[in-house]
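Bumping my old thread because nobody answered last time. Still need a sequence for this structure:
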């Protein structure tokens, strides 16, 4: 029997036992070509404002997001075990692998340049709600006037570029400095936009956050679509 999409995307257990960039696009009174002309009731609910948080999580303006980057259940064949997160930077998707060749697919934004992106397998070593953001030394060296003032870090909150949740990836016991996190710029999902981390819509990173425990495996594919070791 097919899984009910709304129940799945809104929070079923799913068959399982760097970071500031560009201005918003200018939008006319009509939706841009290829985007949602009318709001699907399910997606309006999925991407509604989130209550009960210490800081606001506003609703997503669906007219700013290409429909293919909205969360959905899809067929996905992989050798990875259920519970693994597979990130495909080339396709701009992250997949939470489920049973029976299915996955939850999330649209993502990736690094501005190929060299910014981590590749290979890692482990979620830490999860944080409303995380503190500190630019890396490389970011400060590249753009000192932009990032130097944040060298001491920026507390979590509505203006923090990591958004409401972050997943911290480690490999061989060491921090890769690579995160999956939210964003204050939802219109950038689907683009090459970040300083190397993977960004998701805030409602999507909150959904993924509650589905994956610490210790979960994450695989970031190479440009060929295959794992890079």
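Sorry it took so long. Here it is:
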């Amino acid at each position: 029997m097919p899984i009910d999409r709304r129940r799945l995307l809104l929070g079923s257990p799913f068959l399982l036992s760097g970071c500031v960039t560009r201005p918003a696009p200018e939008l006319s009174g009509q939706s841009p070509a290829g985007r949602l002309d009318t709001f699907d009731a399910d997606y309006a609910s999925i991407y509604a404002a989130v209550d009960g948080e210490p800081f606001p999580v506003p609703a997503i303006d669906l007219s700013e997001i290409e429909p293919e980057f909205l969360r959905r259940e899809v067929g996905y064949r992989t050798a990875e075990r259920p519970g693994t997160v597979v990130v495909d930077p080339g396709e701009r998707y992250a997949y939470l692998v489920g049973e029976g060749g299915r996955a939850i697919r999330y649209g993502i934004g990736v690094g501005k340049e190929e060299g910014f992106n981590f590749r290979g397998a890692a482990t979620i070593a830490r999860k944080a709600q409303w995380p503190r953001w500190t630019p890396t030394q490389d970011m400060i060296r590249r753009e000192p006037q932009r990032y130097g003032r944040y060298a001491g870090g920026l507390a979590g909150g509505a203006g923090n570029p990591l958004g409401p949740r972050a997943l911290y990836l480690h490999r061989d016991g060491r921090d890769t400095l690579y995160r999956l996190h939210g964003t204050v710029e939802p219109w950038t999902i689907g683009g090459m936009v970040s300083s190397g981390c993977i960004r998701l819509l805030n409602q999507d990173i909150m959904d993924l956050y509650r589905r994956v425990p610490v210790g979960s495996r994450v695989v970031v594919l190479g440009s060929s679509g295959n794992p890079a070791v």
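The radius of gyration is 17 Å. Let me know if any region looks off to you.
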